[in-house]
Design goal:
219 residues, mainly alpha, 2 domains, two-stranded antiparallel sheet, 11 helices, 58% helix, 2% strand
Length: 219
């Protein structure tokens, strides 16, 4: 069963639609449909094709909810074409359903009228590429609402292990260090004792980049 925390960047529990020539994606953004068709025509491996098809079903469902905010002019640009191609290349090899869904959320976000620069979008795409599914679970746990009635003292490590009890202390420490290396969090001193409320409020340990990344996938 998929851990619900995997979906906190963002909630990906929406329904899937059949991908075909009459889909919302192909009809609303014909240039996008054409680029996707060209990519699919180059795939000879059946498993890769199935992974891309699953990704497109999620993307189709996601984009159908964003109709009023999609920049049709932007999806016709070379910038968007590069983002599409790069994301599809990653999907070809991506075995994690959670990460495929996150790539879909990224590309849907890239179709919107937004303030992010092309370079920022490329950076977000690289971050998704570098993330493991367990990183996504940890970010979900960080964004979880704090316990309104915590103990008198606690630590970041204790809070995260309470929210993700299957992770050993060593594994959690490694994941936090890696998220810090990606500049998404600042989790130094995760084992230091503090007030219970301070240990529960973890969202403040996201960096500016981490908050922008999560917001881009959510909005």
């Amino acid at each position: 069963m998929t851990d619900e925390r995997e979906n906190r960047i963002p909630d990906l529990s929406y329904g899937l639609e059949i991908w075909d020539d009459t889909s919302f994606l192909a009809s609303f953004v014909p240039t996008l449909g054409g680029a996707v068709s060209n990519h699919l025509s180059r795939i000879s491996n059946e498993r890769k094709f199935a992974r891309v098809q699953d990704y497109l079903q999620i993307l189709n469902s996601e984009i159908s909810t964003l109709a009023k905010t999609i920049s049709v002019d932007y999806v016709k640009t070379e910038e968007f074409e590069v983002l599409l191609e790069k994301s599809l290349q990653q999907i070809d090899l991506e075995l994690s359903e959670t990460k495929r869904a996150t790539f879909a959320k990224f590309l849907a976000g890239a179709t919107k009228i937004a303030d992010e620069t092309y370079e920022e979008k490329l950076r977000f795409l690289k971050i998704i590429e570098d993330l493991q599914t367990d990183h996504i679970k940890v970010i979900g746990a960080i964004l979880e609402s704090p316990d309104p009635n915590p103990g008198s003292t606690g630590s970041i490590m204790q809070t995260l292990r309470k929210r993700l009890p299957k992770f050993t202390k060593g594994r959690m420490r490694d994941l936090l260090e890696q998220l810090d290396d990606l500049r998404l969090t600042k989790m130094g001193g995760a084992q230091a004792m503090m007030t219970g409320h301070g240990a529960e409020n973890l969202e403040g340990h996201m960096t500016d980049l981490g908050r922008r990344f999560v917001a881009f996938l959510k909005d």
